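Fold Annotation — chain and its backbone
Next Lines — sequence and tokenised fold

***
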Amino acid sequence: MRAISRRGFVGGVAATVATAVTGGRVWGFAAGAQFKVGVITDEITQDFDHACAVASNEFGMQWVELRGMWKKSLLGLSDAELADVEKTLAKYRLRVTDIASPLFKADWPGAPKSEFSPKSSAASGDVLKEQDEVLEQSVALAKRFKTDKVRCFDFWRLEDVGPYRAAIDAKLGEAADKCGRQGVMLVLENEPACNTATGREAVRTLGAVKSRWLALNWDPGNAVMRGEFDAYPVAWKMLPKERIHHCHVKNAVKGSDGKVVWSPTGTGVIDWAAQFREMAKVGYRDAVSLETHWHGGANPEDSTRTSWGGMKKALEGGGVL
């Protein structure tokens, strides 16, 4: 993060954020608001109760995205731990935007091992069977937490996906239809380490997989990280807007060494005020979920607080808050 002066933007954001801490949901994200404004809780802290307290009492949110807590994946929690998650959500009057499942963050069977595949991961006997189990568990969690969306990916990125592309598309469609039969939508995140990483690649994938139960989790920050510096507005204009049903909010910037690095939401390549304004114009009604990723603050909570300041300013600038 050497290219970003933390002092330069934190000072301005801190004053904005400080005004929010008045012991209540001061921003008033009512149920009738156009966007479901939320945050991935583990971007704040692994302490789930504290993360929910910050989201609700300080940020004024009514929505959170569930991925992990207590240094465990949501999918790895016991029934008793899941019950504690439910109690905590009720305590802070929070609802769940989606289940941020790791579905399809896996190597495609028969293809070369991806450079993005975790080095510690051992070869599996039946990758697709394992992923079917992840899907089944994720849908069950969606039902339990009263949401109709499960996040997925497009398998670890291959240097040449061409020979496997049709089969991967078929698997995405099959999974989406399985979700659809239970009233759940599969939201595909464009992820730098996976085969659908950019807006342009998302256009291709959505065009190939026609299932109405497959939608896009639009993440322009991720697209920038993959080198798509015109993710907004150029790639955005290409996307089928009616198939965007979730959005992750973060930002990235090119550092002094030429490398692209994460940055606070209010500082970076993506003009979030303009992006939010355009989303509102096309009638977007789903979640905008803060996924900080930038770690330039004193700790994850501090970093997320700074990014929330930038996100809130962008929501106001976009005329949707």
Remarks:
- The chain has one domain: 6-116+125-317.
